[in-house]
Amino acid sequence: MLKRFWLLLLIVGLVLASCNVDPATPAPPGTSVPGPGVLKVAFLDVGQGDSILIQAPNGKIMLIDGGRTTDLAQRLILPQIKAWGANQVDVLVVTHPDADHISGLVGVLESFPVKLVALTGDQHATQIYERLLTNIRDKNIEALKVRTGTPVPFDPAVKLEVLGPDDASVNQDNTNDGSIVIKLTYGQTSFLLTGDAEFAENLSMLRRGADVRSTVLKLGHHGSSSSTDENWLRAVQPQLGIISAGADNPYGHPHREVIRALDNLGVPYIRTDEHGTVTVTSDGTQLRVTSQR
User: What is the 3-state secondary structure (H, E, C) of 198-217?
Assistant: First the structure.
C-alpha cells in the first residue's frame, strides 16, 4: 500500500510540473499568483476527527477544526504551530459544532493567542460548544459569521473561497451539511477542505455553480459514503485525496464504497489512520507530500 502511494505521488508531481507557467504570462482565471514562499497544509492525526493546520506564504496561520479532545491542543496542535515559528493563530475556523471537530479548538482558545474565529453561528446545545463560544466572548476575540462567499482575511497570494454553507443549511438537524467548505488556490494548485459536508451540501454547491475542481480533496466526513461517490469525485477531479479518520473507528471510516470509488477513478489517496499526520507543501506549481509514518 505504501509503495503504491508513493508511486502515485510521483505521478501527481509530474502532472503538476507540466502546469508550469511563464512568470510573464498573466495567471488564468481562477488561479492565484504565488508569492515568494510556500503554502503548507498539514492534515493532523487527531484520531477519529478532523484538524487541518495551514501556513500561508506570508507566515499567517489558519487552523481548521481541532479533533475530539481538548488535550490535542497541547499534545499535537500547538507544538506543530510553534515548530512552524508562529506565535498566534490568525484565523481559527469552526466548520461545524460537532465535538470531534471542535474540542481541540477549545484547548487552543484557552491557552494560545487567536486573532479571528470564523464560524457559522449554528445553534448546538452541547457543553463543549458552549465552552468554545464562552472563550470567544470572554477573550474578546473577533468572530466572523461565515456563509457562502464570505471574505476571510488570510494571505493575498492565496485565493480563499468559502463555498458553503448557505443560510438554508445552518441550524438544521444535520450539522454536517452546515459545514464551512473552503477552497484554497495557490498558483496552479488548490485544496478543497470540506469539513463533514455530505451529499446535500455537495449538491447545493454544484447547483450554485461553485468551481469545486481541486488538486487536493480532503474527503468529507472522514471518508463516509454519505459524502463521497464517483459523481462527486468527477466534479472535483482531485489528483490526491486525503482521508482523516481514526484507526479501527466504530463507524467503519473510510467506507469501502469510498475506497472503491477512488480506486475506480484512479485517484491516489492517503489516510491519517495509516500514515499519521500528512503535510502537503505547494510552491504554486508542484506538491510535496510527507507523512509521519
Answer: CHHHHHHHHHCCCCCCCCEE
pLDDT band at 34 (very low <50, low <70, confident <90, very high): low
Q: What are phi and psi of 32, to 5 degrees?
A: -125, 165
Q: What is the pLDDT at residue 32?
A: 60
Q: How far apart are CA 200 and CA 222, in angstroms?
A: 16
pLDDT average, residue stretch 216-220: 97
Residue 35 pLDDT: 61
What average pLDDT does this structure show over 148-177? 94
Q: How high is the mean pLDDT of the chain?
A: 90
**Mean predicted confidence (pLDDT) in 173-184:** 94
Domains of the chain from N-terminus onward: 2-11+38-150+158-277 (3.60.15.10)
Look at the block and give the residue holding cell 478532523: 50
Grid cell 509530474 is found at 14
Cα gap 227→200, rounded to integer Å: 9
